[in-house]
Amino acid sequence: FMKTKGFKNLKCNFCAFFNKNRVKLLVETALFFCGIIIGAICDVKNVSDDNIGYMNNFASAYKLQGVSSSEIFFRALISYLRIFAFIWLSGRFVFLIPLNLFSVAAKGFGLGFTISYLIRWSGFGGIIFGFLILFAQNIIFIPVMLIYSVYQLNFVLEYGRIKQNGALFKQTKRLIVSDIKISAAVIATAIVCCCIEAYIIPSLIMPMC
Fold it and tell me: Which pTM does this prediction carry?
C-alpha cells in the first residue's frame, strides 16, 4: 500500500512539474533538436574518405581487440557528469543560464553529428549500429537532462527571489535540500546509463564490427 501511495505521489509531482513548466520544457526540447539538425549538417559538410576509413579501422580493431568495459564506463561517466555539471553551474547564477541552454544544444549536436556520420559510414547498417549504441542509454539520459535543465532554471530564479525577499532560512534550506536530492538522483541516472553503455551495448554491437 505504501509503495502504491508513493508511486501515485511521484506521478502527481511529475504531472504538476510538466504542467507548470510546459513552455520551458518545449524550449529546451527545441534547442536539443536544433542541435541534432546542426550536428547532422556539419557532418555532411565535413565528411571525407579518410574519416570513413578511420571508422572501418576502428570497427575492425574493436572486433579483434575488444574494449575494456571499465574504460568505457569511466569515459561515459565523465561525459555525462560534465554535462550535468554545466547544467548544475547554470543554476548558481542567473548570468550562467546560457550555459544551461548551450549544454542541451551541445548534446543534441553530438548526437546529430554521430548519427549522420554512422549513416554515411555504413548506410542502413549505420542506422542499426547507431540505434544499438545510442538508443538504450539516451532514452533514459535525454529526458532526465531536459527535466534537470528546467529544474535548474527554476532553481536559480527561485533562489534569487528568496534572497531578494530576505533569504528566509527555512526557504533557503528547503531549496538547497531539494537541489541535493535531485542532483543525487541525476547522478544515479548517469551511473545507470554508464552501466548500459559499458556492459550491455558492447555485446550487442560486437557481431556488427
Answer: 0.83
